[in-house]
Amino acid sequence: MNSVAYVTVDVFTGERFSGNQLAVVPDARGLSDAQMQNIAAEFRYSEVTFVLPPQDPANTARVRIFTPTMEIPFAGHPNVGTAFVLGGQSDIFGKPPGDVLRFEEKAGLVEAALIRDGGHVVGAGIFAPQSLSLGPQVDHETIARCASIDAGSILTGPHGPVIASVGLPFAVAELANLETLARACPNTAAFAEAGRRYSTDDDQFALFLYTRAPENPWHLRARMFAPLDNVIEDPATGSAAGALSALLTSLHPESDIEIDITIEQGVEMGRRSLIELKVRKSDGLVDSVRIAGRCVAVMQGAISL
């Protein structure tokens, strides 16, 4: 194999050159792990996906997700964008795509439903592969040092800073206002210290900050920083949005409820993104987290190997 085809898409947006960039290799057969990692590092997007035949023929594909520095078990915008790309193909490893795609990933099975407009695929919605899990509480001073903000601007209700995950862990924290969110700037040394303290398995630590207006508590503005993974800031982070939305829904006083949440991200980067979430809680437990958005195609080409 001398080259491999790729396409790029902007995810969680209907406008090209906004949203979150994603590169997809629709047929990664023959690539080694090292080649996949090198390709991800070359793109320097927050993630690149590599599509392989499924191990179970009942599923659509096996999808591997790489950041510039490592392979990860799950992420939101790579799944949405990969479903958009594959949904526009005539076949996927000899089979038509259908309207629901099933991806085998390290975090589990991810189901993606295509979104169509006038018969054309314009986006996708996925369900988080894992239930909400919470890690340790994170002290305010650590969050403040990582984001270069004052610790007094970090809110404690309905939750304090905490590690949350629906397939990929993030520290999530609510800030007092948009002005503080806009001022946030990642301090890599503080992130490295936080990684040693709170993410002992892989020394990684990613931070998802958000704020919301009292008049519209289910429309959030957010920013995500992961400098330890060479992602200084991410314009749209579906896995973090899913974890935060699941956390907020779990804290809602009603034991049975379905909540629609919109998270706006990437504004400060000039790449505005809209992540649409639908979270369901039954008998007091969050049992469904849907992460959805629109996509637009940007580039296609071949990578020399």
Automatic annotation (TrEMBL):
Q: Which residues form the active site?
A: E47
InterPro entries cross-referenced by the UniProt entry: Phenazine_PhzF-like
Q: Name one GO cellular component term.
A: cytoplasm
Q: Which Gene3D superfamilies match?
A: Diaminopimelate Epimerase, Chain A, domain 1
Q: Which Pfam families match?
A: PhzC-PhzF
An example of a GO molecular function for this protein is: isomerase activity
- PANTHER family referenced in this protein's UniProt entry, alphabetically: ANTISENSE-ENHANCING SEQUENCE 1, PHENAZINE BIOSYNTHESIS PROTEIN
Please report which protein family the annotation says this sequence is part of. Belongs to the PhzF family.
- List the protein's name: PhzF family phenazine biosynthesis protein
